[in-house]
Amino acid sequence: MKILITGGAGHVGRKLREQFAGQFETIRVFDMVAATDLRSNEESVVGDIASLEQVERAMRGMDACIHLAAEANETSWERILPANIVGTWNVYEAAFRQGAKRIVFGSSNHAVGFYPRTQVIDHTALARPDSRYGLSKAWGEDVGQLYADKYGVRSMHIRIGNAADVPGSARALAIWVSARDLAQLVRIGLEHPEIHNTIVYGVSRNKACWYDNSEAYRLGYKPLDKAEDYTDEAMAAEAGQKRDPIEQQFQGGPFCAIEYVGPARP
Fold first, then answer.
1. Domain limits at 171?
2. Is 115 part of the annotated catalytic residue set?
3. Measured between alpha carbons, how far is 232 from 239 in angstroms, rounded to an integer?
4. β-strand 197-202 against 154-160: which pairing, if any?
5. Is the pTM of this model over 0.85?
6. Per-residue pLDDT tens for 23-42?
């Protein structure tokens, strides 16, 4: 299989490339900066995700795409629009035009961040974005639905939790995902025959998890790691930090508290 990884020079992209070393015929890395330390089956293409022409050129000859390129934090609409909205549309359109039949979309827990922490949600939960960033991820899931239903480009949307090397907060203990568990989910998205426009949660086998990830388990996901192995480190990192009560109430954490003036504000 030949795969394109948009944002492949970034934090999550580099982790996946390490996990996938030698496992695919070709891994083409598309990013705004050149990828370093390329393996024998990897190639680097520098370009702008907001340019359909450049994305389509990078997609040429690929069987599938792992779409990670994005503005990864809450910021102004002017920054979200080209990378997360236009860029995601470009990836799907380029895949359709170039005959790539499968996309694994790096969605986010922030697409559903305004669910309370007291509620367990599954893959059928409607979007409740907690930010402009979360809204862009929810929109990307809908783009995937359109292209699956109308154009035959199938998607797995992974609502990634916290992909740090180790969980660094109490919240991260609920939503952390290890590199090898995330890679396992991505491979399911690339290869499983039942994928259409499928939503799963990018979390490891965490005891405190807020997500019912039964859809991922049904597809064969068997996470190997769990956040509670790092509880001491996470709580040490959390010690002394003052948390906004809105951040503590909702699953999206600090993204919910940004600019919040809603009814739950004390």
1. 2-238
2. no
3. 11
4. parallel
5. yes
6. 999 999 999 999 988 999 99
